[in-house]
Each structure stands twice: as structure tokens, then as C-alpha cells.
Design a protein that fits this description.
mainly beta; two-stranded antiparallel sheet; single chain; 139 residues
Length: 139
């Protein structure tokens, strides 16, 4: 992802609403997980039977952390509103140019704002998908 700026889009909160770009990430980390887990239990073992290990598909997950610039005060306000909402989550998309779009409902775990008086506001955040993650490859 070197040299690529990831665009963060979130649902605007309207009904039916639309996805709007609120920030561009300069430094970023995307972690994808699709592990299986062992579902073998003591009741699966019989002294006279062969031991079977049962693996079950795990939960696919996605975590994103990064630093970036918001797209004006509207982006800052939207991030802040999501953070202080009751569940801190919102449908969103991470657009990775040249790769595709990850879509999920994301929960904001941490959010920091900063900046200099002569420049745009900056932010740092860590978010996690709260449910299924979809990926659409760029055409």
C-alpha cells in the first residue's frame, strides 16, 4: 500500500442515505483475519474410537488504524458524532486505489484530533469491523 492514500467513506446518517468521503489516510495499517478455531471437546473422545479434531471457520475480521486529514469540518464533525453515538459504529468503506473497496460496519475504538494553527486538522484512529467484511475488487 506504499504510495497509496486510502479514502475513508461512511454513511451520512440520512434515510436512505449515502456513502460520503470524510477523510484521507496518509499512514495506515489494515489487518485482515480469517482464522479457524479448534472445536474438539472432551465429549468427542471415546477410548475405543479414533480421535477427530474438528475445525470450524472463524469469524473474518478487519481492523484499520491510521493517521490522516479530514475533508474539512464536516468530516471532523461526522467522526466525532460517530464516536459519541451509543454504539460507536457506522456502515463504512475503505477505498484502496488500485486494489478495491472493503465494506463493513465499523466501530471507532480510538479517535485523536490534532493539528497546527496554520494547517488542516489531523486525526488518528483505530477502528474494527463489527460484522461481515465484504471486498469488491477494483475493475
Amino acid at each position: 500500500m506504499a504510495g497509496r492514500k486510502i479514502v475513508m467513506r461512511v454513511h451520512d446518517g440520512g434515510d436512505p442515505g449515502q456513502m460520503v468521503a470524510i477523510a484521507t489516510l496518509k499512514s495506515k495499517s489494515i489487518s485482515l483475519n480469517n482464522e479457524t478455531f479448534d472445536d474438539t471437546s472432551d465429549s468427542d473422545v471415546d477410548a475405543f474410537d479414533q480421535l477427530w479434531e474438528a475445525s470450524v471457520d472463524g469469524v473474518s475480521s478487519m481492523a484499520v488504524s491510521g493517521d490522516g486529514r479530514t475533508r474539512g469540518h464536516a468530516g471532523e464533525k461526522r467522526l466525532n458524532a460517530i464516536f459519541f453515538s451509543s454504539d460507536r459504529s457506522v456502515p463504512g468503506e475503505m477505498v484502496v486505489p488500485g486494489l478495491g473497496v472493503y465494506s463493513a460496519t465499523f466501530r471507532i475504538d480510538t479517535l485523536d484530533f490534532g493539528g497546527e494553527t496554520k494547517t488542516d486538522s489531523t486525526f488518528s484512529f483505530a477502528i474494527k469491523a463489527t460484522g461481515p467484511v465484504a471486498f469488491a475488487e477494483e475493475a
